[in-house]
Structures
1.
Amino acid sequence: MALVSALAFLMLRHPTNHYFPLLLAVGKFSSSVLSLALFILVQRSLICLTNSVVDGAIGTAAALFAVSIRRAGR
C-alpha cells in the first residue's frame, strides 16, 4: 500500500511521466496474479478472488493511463 501511495504521489507531481503508471500497473498485475494463484492453489476464499479482480482492474486502468500519456507526449 505504501508503494501505491508513493506512485500516486509521483503521478500527481509528474503527470507527463508515463513510467509511474506503468510501474503501478506491473505491481497491480503481479498482485492480481498472486491472489488468483492463492485462490486456486491454497484457499478458495472470496477475498483472494476479489483482490485478484480489483487489482487486475486497477492494473488495467494504470496501463491505459500509461499508454495515453505516452501517446500524448509524441
Note: The radius of gyration is 14 Å.
2.
Amino acid sequence: MNKILQLLIVDDEPLARALTREYLAKHTDINIIGEAANGLAAVEAINKLAPDLILLDIFMPKLNGLEVLELTGRSSGVIFTTAYDQYALKAFDLHAVDYLLKPFSQARFDDAIARARKLLDVPPVNIPELIADTKLERIVVRDRGQIHIVPLSEVDYVEAQDDYISIHWNGKAILKTQSLSSLEAQLDEQEFVRIHRSVIVKLSAVKYLERISKDAQVAVLHSGVKLPVSRAGYERLKVFVSQL
C-alpha cells in the first residue's frame, strides 16, 4: 500500500485549483493539506506544512514559483503547473520535476503524480540549477522572517561580502546568502557588468570613471558612490561607457 502523501496546491487561479482538486479525487493515497493563491502564501504554507508534494504554478502575483523554491530551499516533490512552456524543456532535462502545461488532461496529471511519487525516493537534484539558469527581473531576499523584493531596475550595484552579497538600491542595502558569480550568471550582461572581483554595477548607474593613480580607477555613480575597477573590469566597462 502506498504511503499517504501530503500535497499542497499553489495557483493564483481559482478554477485551476478547483480542477486540480477534481483530478486528485481519484487519488485516495493523496491528502490535500492546503492551498495558496500567491507566492508569499506558498512560502508560508511550505514552511509550516512541509508537504510531500507541491503542485506549483510558475507565474503568480507577489512571488513566482521559482522564487518560492529559492526562498524555501525546496528541491524535491515539485510539479510545475503553468500556461507557459518556456521552462518545460529545461525542467525535463534536469529530471528533477515534472511539468504540466495548461490545459492538461486527467491522464497527463496522473502520469505526473506517478512520476513525482517515484522521484520522492530519489535524492533531490538540480532545482537550484533551474533557478540559476533563469534571467532575473528582481531579487528576493529572506531577512529576519521577512521577504524583500528588490526590482533590478532599482539596483545600483552588488558587492561580495564573505558568504553574502550586499545589494544596494535606492540608498538602501540588504544582505543575501549567495555568491556574486551565481548572481552574475542570472543578470543581463547588457545592463550589469562585473567591474571588480567583488563588485557588479548597473551600467546606467555609472556617471563616469575616475583615475585615482597610474594603475587604479574607480567608477563614480550618479549617487556619488565610488567603486573599485580592476583592469579586467575596465576592459569590460569601457565597451559601454562613452566617456572613455
Note: Residues 100 and 108 are 8 Å apart (CA to CA).
